[in-house]
Every structure is written in C-alpha cells, then in structure tokens.
Amino acid sequence: MRAPDEWQIRLRPRAEDAYESLRRDGLPIWLADVLARRLEQPVPLAELSEGELARLPDPGRIPGMNRAVERIVQAIERGEKIAFACDHDSDGIASAAVLWTAFTDHFGVPAELLTVVTSHRLTEGYGLSMPVAERIKASGATLTITADKGSSDEERIAWLKAEGVEVIVTDHHLLPAEGAPPSALAVVNPKSPDSGYDPNLCGAAVAFLVMAKVRSRLLETGLRQHVESVAALLDYVAVATVADCVSLRPDRSWINRLLARRGLALINERRRPAWRVFLAEQEGEVTAETVAFKLAPPVAAAGRMNWADAGFHFFIAPTDAEAAYRWQLLEQENYTRRQVERQLRLSALTKAEGHQGQSLVLYLEEGHCGVHGITASRLVDIFGKPTALFAPSAGQDGLISGSFRGIPGFHVRDALQAVADAAPG
Q1: DSSP letters along 108-153, please?
Q2: Distance between CA atoms of 191 and 189, rounded to whole angstroms?
C-alpha cells in the first residue's frame, strides 16, 4: 500500500458518447463533463432526474412473478398461515418490514396469520438453513415467502415441500450453477437467466415488486375493493437499497435511484415512529449517506451480534416510545459490534503482517463470525487482495465459518464455483 506522500490522483475517464448525449439534451459543458466522467454509456436525461414510479417496467418480466402472485392471493383468500423467511442483514430486515406491512396494513391480513422468521447468524448460519426450516414448519404456515435468500437452498425447500409447506423464493442473489431450486413453487429473482428486469435490485426491492403485483391482483379479482398503494413501503426499500450497496449509477440501475429517492423522501416526511425517532438525532434531512453510516449499521448490528428481530421491530414500531426503545437496543448492539470488530481487525492485521501472497486467508481462533465480513472488507481496503477470514463456528464444535471478500475483477463466487467444479463434494 502506498504511503500518503506517494498517492497519485487518477482522473476519471470521460465517456464521450455520454458527454455528447448530455450536451444534446441541453446541459452546459461543465455539467455534462462531470456527469460523463461518472457514466459508462449514454443515459437519457429523464433518468438522471427524479423520474416517476409509473415508468417502472412491469414486474411481470421477472420469471416466476405471476405464479408467485397467484399463490399469494390464493393464500390470502383462504386465510392460510404464511411465514416470511428473511435474512438477518439490513436488506433482509427491511424486506421483512415490506412484507409484514404490506400484508397487515395494505392487504388486511390478520397479524396472527403471519410469522417472520429471521435466521440467527451465529447459530443457524446463512440462507434457509435447516434450523430455520424447522421453525417455519413449527409455525404452522402452509406457505413461506423468502426475502433476500432462498436461491441456493433447494435441500431445505424440498424438505419443507415434503412437510406440506410450499415455498416462494424472492431473492436477488446469484443463482447456483445448477439453477433455481426446483422444489420451490416459484422463484422470483431478477438475476434469473431469462429475466427481463434490472438485475441490480436488492432483496427488499424484489419483495416490494411482488407486493405491488399482489395489490394489483387483489383489486383485479375483487377480493379487495380498495388497497392503499404500496408505494408507501419505499422507505424500507430505500434503506435496503443503500445498505446493501447495490448500484445507484443511472447507467446501471435508474430503477434503484428512483426507488431510493422516493424512499428517502418518505423517511424525511416522518410518517413512521421509526423515522421520527431516528431523525430526532440527525441534523437536517436524511440522505443516502445518513442511511449508510447512521441507520444501517445499528440495524445490521443486531443480526451480527444476536437476533435480528430488534431491527424489524424498530421499523414497524407502532408508537414513538416503542421505536425509541428498539433504537436504543440497536445502538447498544452496534457499540458492542464496533468493539468486537476493532479487536478482530487488530488480530487480523497482526497475522497479515508481511504476507506476500496474492490473497489473504486467515484463521482467527478468537474470531466472531458476526463481524467477519466487515473485517474482511477492511483488510481488502488495506491490502488490495481478495480476503478470506475464518473462525470457529459458534455452538457447532468442529466446524469453522468464514467470510470472503473480493476485489474488482475477481468475483469470490466464481472462484469458489471453480473449486467446486474441480473437486466436487
């Protein structure tokens, strides 16, 4: 890594096609130049401005969408018990808030028919793990909707199906080499090979689009005479979009920019108790930067250190007092997370000192899998190398868990897939 006095400033290259397009749209030379140095291809001027939700492409272009919507509407009509299986990070927790609020506040489904199941990162692992599947079965649900996970969980989805629980996967992660889980009733994932939708969405955005289609279908079938627009859920989507670091570049995902802008505006309107409590601690309006550095870390910390439910209950808190209580819990978890991360980073830096390889692979006996990912990211920033960080798995003797972080041009999933192909099993 270069010392500060050796740093060099590299000018951004200008995308000439984008520059000429912006000049034709009437932008002054200086502004067209600034924007063109942040784009890779021409973008219509309308997609750089606020935009309208009516411009969103039909979510039906995502494979599995229509089948998923029909089954969800059927479950609502029959009064079935439904479980929402959501990830433990900020995107997953925001997804849970999207689903829960859509069903209870917009579709009129009684809360006693709904269950949110978030996985415990330390003891249950990632994805739709077996402990999570068992809790879903125990809830009595006949339909499970995943959010921000499920694309790689065929084994547990097949088990749930055999137990009489149908599974609809809504997700945004890359599908495994063998494809979407065949036991799922439907897989709604914009990264599906045959998808005609923006693949850069976060999990909460996918869940939101499913809810938008469910609303339309409820009105079309006459099951509901009036359903409030689910656009009111975009505050949750904005949090997830920023927290999950999906692209906000207009030449890559104008949809993400639109959803984030609309959602941030809703947060600043302070309609929910959660936002009133959060904004009371901020100076000025909430921006994407505020979400990234002030809101998302405490929400994610709950899932890193313990159960993620505190973030979900903060989002949907019915009163300011409840939201304030939940926010205090989240800030306490975030303080603990920072302390653990600091110690883990120091240990990792000591082990990495003098390492000459093209990647870093470290095992920390006293590690904490809840902060592996953050620590690995810090090491990538420092050393500029793909990094894998391992430690004993909490509560599972003989097992280790780890987090991987890549660098531009090196996708960790592709590397792991190559290993799996070379040495199956």
Answers
A1: ---GGGEEEEE--HHHH-SSS-HHHHHHHHHTT-SEEEEES--TT-
A2: 5
* 86 contacts 149 by C-beta, under 8 angstroms: yes
Instruction: List, in sequence order, the alpha helices (H) in 284-319.
Output: 288-290, 296-305, 309-315
Give SS3 for 321: helix
Q: Is 196 in the same domain as 324?
A: yes
Residue carrying the six token digits 């190398």: 385
287: left (phi over 0), alpha (psi -120 to 50) or beta: beta
Q: Please name the amino acid found at residue 156.
A: R
pLDDT digits (tens, 9 = 90+) for 169-226: 999 999 998 999 999 999 999 999 999 999 999 999 999 999 999 999 999 999 999 9
End-to-end CA distance of the chain: 38
Structural domain harbouring 238: 59-330
CB 90 within 8 A of CB 240: yes
Task: Count CA within 13 A, CB hemisphere, residue 177.
Answer: 10
SS3 189: coil
Distance CA 228, CA 376 (A): 43
Residue 123 has pLDDT above 60, yes or no: yes
Is residue 166 domain-resident?
yes
The C-alpha R_g of the chain, in whole angstroms, comes to 22
Decide if 73 contacts 218 (C-beta within 8 A).
yes
Residue of 81 and 360 predicted with greater confidence: 81
How would DSSP label each residue in 275-286?
HHHHHTTSSS--
Q: Is residue 338 part of a domain?
A: no
What does the alpha-carbon distance between residue 321 and residue 275 come to, in Å, rounded to a whole number?
12
Total length of the chain: 425
Phi, psi (5° rounding) for residue 216? -60, -40
CA distance 285 to 279: 8
Per the domain annotation, does 85 fall within a domain? yes
Domain-located, residue 343: no
